[in-house]
Amino acid sequence: MTTTTQSSYLAPPVRFLDKLKYLGPGFILSASIVGSGELIATTALGAKAGFITFWVILVSCLVKVTIQLEFGKHAIYSGETVMEAFNKLPGPRFGKANWSIWTWLSLMLPKFLQVAGIVGGVILALQIAFEGLPLWVWGVIVPVSVSLLIYRGQYVFIEKFSLTLIGLFSLMTLICVIALQFTPYAFSWGDVASGLTFQLPATAIVFAIGAFGITGVGGDEIMFYNYWCLEKGYAKHVGPREETDEWYQRAKGWIKVMTLDAILAMVVYTVVTAAFYLLGSAVLHGTENIPEGSQVIETLSTMYTETLGPWAKVVFLVGAVVVLYSTLFGALASWIRIFADAFYKVGWVDLSTPKGYRQVLAWMAWIIPAIWTILYVFIQLPVFMVMIGGVATSIILFLVVYVAIHLRYQRLPKELTPTRRYDLFFWLSAVSIVLVGVYGISKLLI
Q1: Alpha-carbon distance 333 to 340, whole Å?
Q2: Closest Cα partner for 57 from 195, 193, 235?
Q3: 278 and 46 in contact (C-beta within 8 Å)?
Q4: Cα first-last separation, the chain
Q5: Closest by alpha carbon to 406, among 100, 130, 144?
Q6: Confidence band (pLDDT; 50, 70, 90) for 297?
Q7: pLDDT of res. 271
């Protein structure tokens, strides 16, 4: 789906400030991450468990980044999409596609519920803010507007719009956390420290698993990263693989740029995620106010009204729309690309020409939001829907870890072998993801 010519080869930037000009893929992910995970799942966990599970949030944000880097590296040195890589995995094939593609497609079905819950959150926030308009009006405006933004949206627009949304909700949340310290709900460093003792109350297990799957980069977002690295042009700048020192130096240089992109994005979403969790723990847990059902937006608004006063409800509603809408925007932009790729490998669509590719993306940009909205209309339980998607994301992480190990040890050119320190963090990430996932699922079954 990407073409590379020798004229598009580009020497990687060396200076830090020059590297900043080529960042972007990680921040598109951040726009979709900071929404369902941060505003709903994170605050719901904080409301349910208090400060005690703060460690779940931090581990979730920090532990997955090296797995993400492996997918980014593969995009750079191979120029392959995720589904092209999946289709080359060992194991049986069903029809035209590898078993891993079919597995991923089945695991993505509950993810429709997750994003449908986000659609519901946006609709509820808008309905509260504009009481005169009926629910169905927003049920049309929300999906139609996001489809309009995405169906012809190219990479540059998506990147800039994502950065704008990230800046808005990051500033809003950090100001609220600071203001919280001047209210009766102020928290201490002792409260924060209590959340670093690695305890997991039985009553919060489902919330913790859902939050672990959604917060930080989830399994699906790790896969999305591949497409944004390709569209940013990293692989194009490196060029098709050549057994030359020049090619390997270009590849190493652009891998360093990609690594900086992923790490800086991780810093942003970790800080914002932690802020949301502390708000939920300090305000909602103290009042035993658990966000659920159609009252989720009203409940979450108390984080702001209790902190800043009744007038802050308007601020919250604006912020909630921005945060949740950013998830819809980032998710739809990613979903249409990866689903189109998967359907192509299965044999359901034709992406063999640029025109065919654009047409498939355009159609999916309208169909997928319609499905999200219909699901919300029939279920109308945003928190439950988001948590179900979070559990599915946790399971997808098992598949992603397996693929990352395969890419690292079977596909990575030996000339690009990372340091032992990197491998240590890579295995720490892989083992942590598997252990947390197995532990959580075992607790659910007991």
Answers
A1: 11
A2: 195
A3: yes
A4: 46
A5: 100
A6: low
A7: 87
Cβ neighbours around 371 below 10 Å, total: 14
CA distances, 137 to each of 124, 140, 141 (Å)? 11, 5, 6
pLDDT of 3 > 50? The answer is no
CA distance 82 to 408: 14
For residue 17, is pLDDT > 70? yes
The answer to whether 221 and 402 have CB atoms below 8 angstroms apart is: no
E strand segments, 114-222 = none
- In a 13 Å sphere around the CA of 124, the CA atoms on its Cβ side amount to 25
Q: Which two tokens stand for residue 215?
A: 């917060």
From the list 214, 46, 215, the residue with the least C-alpha distance to 114 is 214
- Whether 384 and 28 have beta carbons less than 8 Å apart is answered as no
The pLDDT of residue 2 is 47
pLDDT in tens, 400-434: 999 999 999 999 999 999 999 999 999 998 998 88
Q: For 164, phi and psi rounded to 5 degrees? A: -65, -45
Residue pLDDT, tens place only, 57-99: 888 888 889 999 999 999 999 999 999 999 999 999 999 999 9
Instruction: Count the helix, strand and coil residues of the chain and give each as a percent rounded to the nearest 5.
Output: 80, 0, 20
Contact assessment for residue 368 and residue 32, using Cβ atoms and an 8 Å cutoff: no
- Among the residue ranges 23-32, 164-173, 191-200, 350-359, the one predicted with the least confidence is 164-173
Number of neighbouring beta carbons within 10 Å of residue 92: 7
Q: How far apart are CA 95 and CA 90, in angstroms?
A: 15
Whether 304 contacts 176, CB under 8 Å: yes
CA 35, CA 216: separation in Å to the nearest integer? 11
Tokens of 316: 């919250």
Cα–Cα distance between 134 and 307 in angstroms, integer?
A: 30
Residue 19 phi, psi (nearest 5): -65, -35
